[in-house]
Design brief:
Lyase, Ornithine Decarboxylase, Chain A, domain 1; TIM Barrel; 2 domains; nine-stranded mixed beta sheet; 12 helices; binds ligand LLP
Length: 400
């Protein structure tokens, strides 16, 4: 990608995405299913910038939205309601009303109470609501605790024992159509076992329901497939899909997946400029960047690792050790610890890798920092798909 040219024209910080990588990552998952029926609902929470979502829709992706606002973006990207699943642990009354009246493919219901609220809304509107029940299978995803969702102590889903009782009530609830069992046990999962076990739980429950005469349409196994941020070996897309198909094929039902990171993560970098270099310890220096936790929260929030590379290398080679930090007034505003890089000088450009997912989507205006622009590189050309926020944009909502 022409990173230096983009930085020269648009300034930094800036997110740069490769449409080619985005397409390849989507197709890799799609292809891995072979002939097995499936639908990929891209998890918009990973990155819902309109032009990026449109690239995926053009490939045949469907959408997973986590709020009415993501549903609205999905609609503006051209998705039909029947292509949208609505997930999320806390859906407000207004959000549920919107989803029921739109007639989305499924509302992934997270509790008995929410199921009753959906039923009441559907009854009032004279509609039948399509629901999937998100079960909490009590499985340890072995990911970072902040992004593990499948344990009983996590807030997500209906506990599995309670789910069975809930199913017994469904046959008589005429305003509801149960279309699927749904689960999602966490994100950035790098081993196959939790994913396989979750698929087995969803399969067993689906079979249980089908045997009792409830005609399900598909099984929704959520997202969660990790990517290798540090270059280490992790479960491959093929191994992942094979494991899911091996389980879910016992139902013959199509598989729905909600991948976010595995598609968008590797497709983006965050470009930043070194704005200061100063001593730290005898062995290391601070490299202060013009991007930090406001542009990429993951390192500060989860201690996440992102590779940092100089965009142009200096000829003299002896590496130095850097602590990459952002400009925000927080000690946790660290982008990368103890990195060995060729010597850096103020003004140098660095690329922070794998920032396509949960980068711009989690950015904030803390310290009144404007949201950076986003650039999409496609077929040798590039264009700004979101311009840099201005102070006027930020203050447009405020009164004197
Ligand atoms: N489906 C559901 C119900 C989810 O909660 C999530 C992610 C996904 C699908 C997509 O998961 P993925 O394929 O991207 O792993 N901010 C964190 C990640 C939070 C993920 C939340 N839910 C991070 O930066 O690591």
């Amino acid at each position: 990608m022409p990173l230096a040219a983009i930085a020269a024209k648009e300034g930094t910080p800036v997110y740069v995405y490769s449409a080619a990588v985005l397409r390849e990552r989507y197709r890799a998952i799609d292809r891995a299913f072979g002939a097995y029926p499936h639908a990929l609902h891209y998890a918009m929470k990973a990155n819902s910038t309109l032009a990026l979502v449109k690239v995926l829709r053009e490939l045949g992706s469907a959408a997973d939205a986590n709020s009415i606002w993501e549903i609205e973006v999905a609609r503006r990207a051209g998705f039909e309601p029947a292509q949208i699943v609505f997930t999320g642990v806390g859906k407000s009354q207004a959000e549920l009303e919107c989803a029921v009246s739109l007639g989305v493919k499924a509302i992934n219901v997270e509790s008995a109470g929410e199921l009753s609220r959906v039923e009441a809304i559907a009854t009032r509107l004279g509609r039948t609501a399509r629901v999937a029940i998100r079960v909490n299978p009590d499985i340890d995803a072995k990911s970072h605790p902040h992004i593990s969702t499948g344990l009983k102590i996590n807030k997500f889903g209906v506990p599995i024992e309670e789910a069975r009782e809930l199913f017994d009530t469904l046959a008589s609830r005429r305003a509801l159509t149960l279309v699927a069992i749904h689960l999602h046990v966490g994100s950035q999962i790098t081993t196959i076992e939790p994913l396989r076990r979750a698929a087995a739980v969803a399969t067993d429950l689906s079979l249980h329901l089908m045997q009792r005469g409830l005609p399900l349409e598909y099984v929704d196994l959520g997202g969660g497939l990790g990517i290798s941020y540090d270059g280490g070996e992790i479960v491959s897309v093929q191994e992942y899909v094979d494991a899911l198909v091996a389980e879910a094929s016992r139902t013959s039902l199509p598989i729905v997946l909600e991948p976010g990171r595995a598609i968008a993560g590797p497709a983006g970098v965050l470009l930043a400029t070194v704005i200061d270099v100063k001593p730290r310890t005898a062995e290391s220096e601070f490299a202060v960047l013009d991007a930090g936790m406001t542009e990429l929260l993951r390192p500060a929030l989860y201690g996440a690792f992102h590779q940092i590379e100089p965009v142009s290398r200096r000829a003299d080679a002896d590496g130095r050790q850097y602590e990459f930090v952002g400009p925000v007034c927080e000690s946790s505003d660290v982008v990368g610890r103890d990195r060995q890089l060729p010597p850096l000088a103020v003004g140098d450009l660095v690329a922070i890798r794998d920032a396509g997912a949960y980068g711009s989507a989690m950015a904030s205006n803390y310290n009144r920092r404007p949201l950076p622009p986003e650039v999409l590189v496609d077929g040798g050309a590039w264009r700004v798909i979101r311009r840099r926020q201005t102070v006027d944009d930020m203050m447009a909502l405020e009164s004197q």
